[in-house]
Protein 1
Amino acid sequence: MADKENYQVIIVHSAKYQTTYTKKYMNRKVWVEPNFNHINSYIPGTIIEVLVKEGQILEKGKSILLLEAMKMYNNVQMPFKGKIVKINVVKGQMVPKNFLMIEIEPVK
Amino acid sequence: MNLLPEINFLIKKTKSMSLKRNILDLRKRKDQVRLGGGEEAIEKQAAMGKLTARARILAIVDEGSFHEYDMFVEHAGTDFDMGKKVLAGDGVVIGTGTIYSSPVCLFAQDFTVAGGSLGLSHARKITKIMDHALKMRVPLIGINDSGGARIQEGVNSLAGYGEIFFRNTLSSGVIPQISVILGPCAGGAVYSPALTDFVFVVENISKMFITGPAVIKSVLGEDISMEALGGARVHAEITGNAHFFALSEKECFEQIKTLITYIPWNNTQKAKSFPPKEPKIKTKIENIVPIDARLPYDIREVIRSITDSSVFFEIMELFAANIVIGFGRMNGETVGFVANQPLVLAGVLDCDSSDKAARFIRYCNAFNIPIVTLEDMPGYLPGVDQEHAGVIRHGAKILYAYSEATVPKITVIIRKAYGGGYIAMNSRHLRADFVFAWPMAEIAVMGPEGAANIVFRKEIAEAEDPEAMRQQKIQEYKDKFANPYVAASKGYIDEVIEPQETRKILLHALQISANKDVPAPAKKHGLPPF
């Protein structure tokens, strides 16, 4: 347990409580607002095929790349009608989870 | 001539000779089985700091009390040349014994025999002793040390696991079930321990996971060691799968023996009584707790200052340490303690602490153990991670468990009892039998700081010196509501007590509640949010 000087603070209903943190609390995931213009890998895997080029405009639901993970081909699609702004992956590349693969922007 | 005496003599002689031979043969057969997978395999086991299956059982039970059954059972495999192989006892030891004279049924997987792998006969031996334990209404202790399913026996292995899980469920809440993880316990095998009441793990020896490091690496690219993935510390601290953590097998066995003294043989009995003892701690209980509700202290010191001999047997010490659970004795009888821990995360309720407390409350209720709740908590842990992790459904488990429990339920509010947390921590409204409060207790919708900000929002905003006004209003709120007397005036608290009276009053309340009997509406079973 921490020394008195090393106490940390938890705020509940505006009151500051001196206490200690658990490892799990310190390692908790801090929430970040999702950016819908980022296509991230939702699972680690290998890029089998990039099906689009930068500057291309695609309808919602069109395939943009194939990601192999857990022995399955995952067809990654456009979430809305938009333009491919930047491609950060190449065919054959292994990507970790939450890797920014492709940046897009909506097109009216 | 009478030949009878001579004939009788000859019969007697051959009889004793053959009996002796039979006994020698029996001993030889038993010794052969006791050798398990052979000396080499036993040495390997020892090199890992592990005892053999039989040595483990003998280290747990009273000396000379163990009887082993099904030593000569043979494995059921025929495919892949398995028919030619001899597996001593099919890799598992089953039997009965006593711990401090209390009967128990035990099984221990023998890693030296085919890696303790589970085939049909192995599983049948385990289910046999499980059936025995349930029939005889005595605790079951299972020692897991196994490479998993015996692949050569195919679906028969899976059938074996299923039959074990089914019996774990059937016995749940009828007899205490204890799992000891002393080696690998991977894949489907983990679900038997997960279904039991208490899981014991030992550092560097216990390993539990559904999917091992090799598969995780090949499909996800995540590189992790067995210890970091599912070692003893991980399960004691992060997952909450383990209830007791030890540094050696010896320490683990002592923990098991101690636990057995606190729990009854089955759900129709009470735990054993011990001679009453006064607490040993001499520190005054009120000196442990700072008056300022925002300062921390170790709630376990408060527990130790009220239990017999100041002994508190803590359960899940490392997991969700913001709530403390465990057994102590009051006047020689087992009591389950549930207490907020201001020293860790200010003692807030969150997903993990709710799960931890709820399961323990249900355990106490199932096995006729009265529950003493010590309350000092500011509310629920704020945060997106908590909300998204389902703090609503997890938090509901505490409410459910307390409401459902029919054993004696006594609460002592030490300092803070705010909001939903006040209701959850065995309040009068959830049918607590006795609710006591220390004079500095604050029972309110929230702490004075938060409440003043809301109630006097306008006054504070419009004041010339908002901060001075805020402090004034906080004080005003404190004087009016931050005390036990508002709740006491409505009968939500039975008695405001002096801290030093706590043990005496708890002993009295437990004495009064000893024959508590409350009817519950008939139902097949409730639907707790799990």
Note: The longest strand of chain A covers residues 63-69.
Protein 2
Amino acid sequence: MQYPLNANRSSKLKHIVRNPFLYAMAVPGLLFFLVFSYFPIYGIMIAFKDYNFAKGITGSKWVGFKNFDYFFTSDDFWVILRNTLMLNILFIVFTTAAAVVIALMFNEIRNKYFKRISQSFIFLPYFMSWIVVGMIVQSLFGGEEPMINAWLQNMGFEPINWMFESKLWPFILTVIRVWQGAGYLSIIFLAAITGISEDLYEAARIDGASKMQIVLRITLPLLVPTIMIMTLLAVGKIFNGDFAMIYAIIGDNSLLYPTTDVIDTFVFRSMRQLHDFGMSSAVGLFQSVMGLIFVIAANWVTRRVSKESALF
Amino acid sequence: MRLKKWFGATTTTILASSLMLAGCGGKTETGGNEGKSPTPTNTESSVPAPKATVALKAYFPGDKPAGFDDVLQAVNDKLKADNIGASLNINFLPWTDYGNAVSVKMSAGEDFDMYLDAPWLSMNQMIASNSLMELDAMVAERPELKASIPDEMWEYNKFDGKIMGIPLGTTQGQLYGLLIRRDLREKYGLPELQTLDDLEKFLYTVKEKEKDIKPFVINGIKADKLPFILSDSANLALDEVLEIGVNMFAYSIKDKKVVSQWASPMIADAYERVTKYYKDGILSKNIAQEQNAETLFKQGKYAATYYAADGVEGLKYSEMLQDGSDKLEVFVPNGDKAKPYTAFQQWNFLCIPTSSKHADLAMDVANWLSVKENHDLMEYGIQGKDWEPVGDTSYKVLSSYSFPGYVLTWRPTLNRTPDTMMPDDKKWFDFSTNPANFTLSPTAGFNFNAEKVKTEYAKITPLHDSVFLPLSQGVLPADKGKATLDEKMASLGGQKVIDEIQAQIEAVTSGK
Amino acid sequence: MRQKQSAADRTFTIFAYSFILLFTLFCLFPFLLMIIGSFTDEGELIAHGYTLFPQKLSLDAYKAVLQSDVLFNGYAVTIFITAVGALSALCISAMLGYSLANKRNVLQTPFLIFCYLPMLFSGGIIPFYIVVSQWLQLQNSVWVLILTLLCQPFLVFLLVSFFRTIPEELEEAARIDGANEMRVFFQIMIPISKPILASVGLFYALNYWNDWFMGLMFVDNEKLFPLQLILRRMVSNMEAAKNLIPAAAAIAVTPPTYGVRMATTVLTIGPIVLLYPMLQKYFVKGLTVGAVKG
């Protein structure tokens, strides 16, 4: 069948008229985006304006790139940038890996009750607000007698002063992030695995493949498009630090900033006295633009390798 | 006496409202005098025609107090009975989101009539963008409101010479000290604390002799006040004004210059003390993360904690005295000669957005609330049910109704203190409500507007949390902390901010 | 030959069970700490932090939360918007996703980009507020809580990626048989997409269930506050009361701020955790196989 994607405009129009439902289906969703995302998008201009409450966004004075100054000329610019990217890469890689493994393992579980109960439990961390998580982390690692230190001492190790050691925290944060997000993500992978045709498994079993081989040669490869899309979607946000998580856990403990301070927490602290919408939006715009560039690049690479794994 | 006042208030309000009605002419007011052609009230008739009630919308931070619906109903009933022509529709927004939510509503031009704003919220931006109404004229016309707030408070809480919000406060300045466990002091036979050396002796004794009780606790965030307390110059009006309304900076009267607080020679001894106390374990190792100082002190785990004579801090601990003991006392360094600087600056204002269509009515209500009886109704609840008067200046709490007075009703002349307030606390609180006990700061009237140096100010703001606080907590030793601050200030363009503050202060001082 | 397979396979299965068990415990542990924390006396929480075996239990946190007279109202509102919202959102997103994923769609690429950009770019809260409350006049109604979350780009793309995996032959075969587009979609595509539809529906439900922001910005009427907003207000104001201005002098108890945070989490998780097992029955092998051959 010929798909007239590259046809000229009139035959495209004809196609639309001939297949109204195909296009009409998309209308409600597109309308939503138009009204709730695109109508307000003129607000991006705030990044370039000296925002005045009374004059509104359109009436405020244009200041060009001045709102970006405090961020780009900051002493810690490179550190913050590095932290944001590094933490996000760690988060994406480990959460995805964990979620994939979990989904693959779940596929092997036959006991209905075990499956249902454990699926519900691994989902729970997603519901705990970061503030609550932060309090528990404080209990485990901070205060006068951190719980983890008690365990370490029981096992014969030396206690560590966690709140003072910045180098350990990227790893601690990654573990926490995997704990919170892997369960949620694994549902998506599990749904994708469920869609794999039973025929393929049958054929493999007849050929004498072991379970491990089936997983590695059939399930995993067929999961790759989904993994790629999830990753691409995450890459778009790679310049956006997880403010809720990091602020709730690290808070104002400046000793840990060298490895955990990200763009969003930095902006938050800088704006504490000023509350300037223009200046905070400016950095937000920077994050969005950089994210877009990275996604387009990553998407282009993915298209070359496997077309159906790409985003667009 | 009270009756006369009430009558006077009502007449004034009616006259004021009629003037307003007359001035309105043919304007249609939504929800107001629809369909009625406005006629000036006949001052000869003894009973003026009852006015239609306009619902005034207000946004305040916090939670709806228990029993608020009843109290608000009583307030609105009384407003109607007093023919003010307005009723209150009060909406509470959660504290954490208040600032943002209210800014967004203001920017969108939403229609509401009053809200809480402050320099530490977005008041400066609102003023700069002409989003707040000037209230000078309206205040002048409302005697109860004007009288309920001392002249100094009105005068020094102006922005660019204009009243942009009703200042809400009970004290006239800051007085700092420490709350001490008297029982422990007496246990070790130490005399009443008069000097900082006495205090030091007490703290070290506790550290040495008490196993389960530690010397001192304070929340990490409050620690920037420690250098003010632990200095020989505490609470005195000497060379420098430490609190000028901008974090980390002070004003030297001698040199007429803006200086950094950490470089001030006046409190240099405090930084040495703090460093020493931290090293010796008087201040807890984890002071930076402490958030529960009040609760821990109440549990009896500490011998001393932070105290401020603001009528609020001391009340947090009154439950410790419920068993009838008097185990708490307040130590105010230099208490006998205290006359601290004050700019009479208040930190909370009732503001009216320019988009409000009922500013006059809103001010009428504010005036109405400045009458003792009405003030008490809103702030303490229904008499007999929620509270009982104890004399003129105190009260006994009967229910769990607790209105956040700092958003609407605080008036220095009308304030009542709970009867559970400890005597030391009451003594220092009363001290703080009297303007005569303070020295007028040369920077009074100065309110920092960071517009021109936004970028640099944004760059140095993080230093407060990351370096200045640890320095004040003793976590960063004095010499190292000061050096880091000097270095970073310079490299981040802090001098530009300092120059701007200087210029603005000079504008204020030369204008006098 | 069979024996060897069995051993390797058995080890693998054992490994699978152990891994899941360990991860489940890993997820469960902090959660248990939290539940126990919600029943622990506040004073102890502050002094000693969280523990699995507290010395002093207390129901203060739950008492504080449950005494809110608007709480049950909040449950009602939230259940309504979650049910209506999640179903509507699922329908709209599924239709959009199918349209975008279909290879016959000539406007595919522009549409995809149109739907992706909102994920990265936003005009900010102020224009959004103006659009919703002034242009659309949606404030103070239950619809503002539903309409504003109706379509999430992330979930739409999830559906797109799934619909792409459906073999083209399936659709062709159906159309050759004479079915029109609508029938193809509803009678064939939907049934085989049950797992992904269940997941997306669940995620939308969670989105609605957890949201407090829309309520905060647009709803002043107490009776329309969603559950999460009520709880957030409670916690936020309790924190403020502790640090800024204390409640009236007579109140002797330490407000159980920590405990309340835990209790509110427990109260909100309950219902939604029950939803998940109900949806698990959709996670069964699809009918793709039979569909093509048949």
Note: The CA atoms of residues 149 and 283 of chain C lie 25 Å apart.
